[in-house]
Specification:
The chain is an alpha+beta fold and about 450 residues long. The protein is built from twelve helices and twelve strands. α7 packs antiparallel against α9.
Length: about 450
């Protein structure tokens, strides 16, 4: 038991608390002589009570001190444990490397001269034709995530398709920047001594779990496809969740929109020549393949920017960031780029494969005229200013505005395109029917191109 000094504040307080008990006894000398035996007994009891009170105070002080010491020790242990073992508190700071690491290092920087504004985009465009690599939407392309954790928060991360498609990141060389959009960017690069296109998220979106999961969903969809008219998927490389690289074949011919711009500037003949018919046929092959999968895959963002060309000008479809496997549920999400979208998609109504067929009809008008869709729509003949986008879409939904055709023919191609552009989905042909019609037309216009 600790020693209590009579000079300590605690002892002084104890004595002071007992003094009022002694006061009646000591206040009058006459009272002392009046009853000596009573005063002596009372004094002994009072002193004993004071001693007990002091002992109780000492015990309380010891208990409080021990409790404070234990609480401080426990808080310190918890703080150390949290700093040593707990994950980072910021749920969006995704820096934890994936556990199935193959000893990969960061991608090397290839010795390329960086150049923006390249003809290769592999991405989406806004209605005015400006590049937007990811089309500004991921809706429906990935599972929902609340962003509550880095590791294990996405079911796709452990998906066998994703894991099987992994390639060593130290073999991936980043080169020149080809395009940048609202969510991602595309680089030219090298993998195993071959030119490749490397798609990754922007630094501003790499730590957002929703964007990461959507990118993984696109990668999984790309990895599951194999068709000569779809851009070949090479693999996916990563060092952490926030550093994902989707690697695909590099298309030396750029994208179709850039080719059509060159056609316009060079005064290339309007209409459908054998090369354009071949491109249309190849795109129809890709759509027929997507719609034949089980479950059906809808591209949902088909347009000239998302059609890439080989050096020999063979067409392949790319950019599945907005694509979605069709389910039994009604699909009503407004995705894609508005000037290529079917009316039912713009309205938010139920839609299916025929929405892609409408977009194909718009692409056919681009092949014919070399123009962006609805670029001929002007406010009035005096100013010559183009109609605002909202006005164009309103006129489209009212059936008062359609994409334009040159009339240069062949007439069969124009008729087929117009059938694809019918307002009612049931009035449009299927992708397989379009493919059959294009095969028939191509035989009527033979050329040296292999169809």
């Amino acid at each position: 038991m600790p020693t209590l000094s009579w000079r300590s504040p605690l002892a002084a307080a104890a004595v002071a608390s007992c003094s009022w008990l002694l006061a009646p006894v000591l206040a009058d000398d006459d009272s002392i002589s009046y009853s000596v035996s009573l005063s002596t007994g009372a004094l002994i009891g009072i002193v004993a009570g004071c001693v007990v009170l002091v002992l109780l105070l000492i015990c309380c002080c010891c208990c409080l001190r021990r409790r404070r010491k234990n609480r401080h020790k426990r808080e310190l242990e918890e703080a150390v444990a949290a700093a040593t073992h707990s994950p980072k508190s910021n749920s969006h700071a995704i820096d934890v490397p994936y556990q199935r690491d193959f000893g990969a290092a960061a991608p090397r920087q290839a010795n390329y001269t960086q150049r923006t504004g390249s003809t290769y985009t592999g991405g989406s465009t806004n209605p005015n034709g400006t590049m937007n690599t990811y089309g500004g939407t991921y809706s429906g392309g990935a599972p929902h995530s609340s962003g509550s954790g880095a590791r294990g928060s996405t079911s796709l991360w452990d998906d066998p398709v994703i894991v099987a498609a992994r390639i060593p990141i130290d073999r991936v060389e980043l080169g020149e920047l080809l395009s940048r959009g609202g969510f991602g960017e595309v680089y030219r690069g090298r993998y195993r001594e071959q030119n490749v296109a490397i798609k990754t998220l922007l630094p501003s979106t790499r730590k957002d779990m929703n964007h990461i999961e959507a990118f993984l969903a696109e990668i999984k969809l790309m990895a599951s496809m194999e068709h000569p008219q779809i851009v070949q998927f090479v693999g996916v490389a990563w060092e952490s969740l926030s550093e994902l690289y989707a690697v695909s074949e590099f298309m030396e011919g750029g994208d179709l929109r850039t080719l059509l711009i060159d056609y316009h500037n060079d005064g290339h003949a309007l209409g459908f020549d054998p090369l354009k018919i071949k491109m249309a046929l190849q795109v129809a092959h890709a759509l027929t393949y997507l719609h034949s999968l089980d479950p059906v895959v809808l591209h949902r963002d088909l347009k000239s920017r998302n059609i890439l060309l080989t050096e020999a000008l063979d067409a392949k479809v790319t950019d599945f960031g907005a694509s979605r496997q069709r389910s039994d549920k009604t699909m009503t999400a407004g995705v894609g780029t508005s000037f290529w979208m079917a009316p039912e998609v713009i309205m938010g109504d139920k839609y299916g494969e025929k929405a892609d067929v409408f977009s194909l009809g718009v692409v056919l008008s681009e092949l014919d005229t070399h123009e962006l869709p609805y670029s001929h729509a002007k406010e009035n003949s005096d100013t010559g200013r183009p109609l605002p986008d909202t006005a164009v879409l309103q006129l489209l939904l009212l059936g008062k505005l359609q994409v334009r055709f040159s009339g240069a023919g062949p007439e069969e191609m124009t008729q087929l395109a117009q059938q694809c552009l019918q307002m009612e989905p049931n009035d449009r042909p299927t992708a397989a029917e379009v493919l059959y019609r294009l095969h028939t037309i191509s035989r009527e216009y033979p050329s040296s191109y292999s169809l």
